[in-house]
Task: structure prediction
Amino acid sequence: MSADPTDELVRAVARRGLAGPVAILLDAHRPLQPLLAEATTFLAPLLRPLLGPRHADLLRVMSDRTRYALLMERLRAAESGEADAEHR
Result:
């Protein structure tokens, strides 16, 4: 696990070219963030085999409003970086 869990999540999402859509989805669901954190905990038995140790990072991000907002900012920055690279 990294010191800042948002870094690895942003890299994984951006690597798949989904930074923009995920940022929009997270922004649209911002009012539900506490519920999403509870859902992440509830779905842990299903998510752990799929995500491995990254599950803990996801839970930390979903449980903390500051990290949730930081994740959205970094995803938007990653998306704009991808868009800039495509135009070159």
User: Anything to note?
Assistant: DSSP finds six helices and no strands in the chain. The CA atoms of residues 1 and 88 lie 34 Å apart.
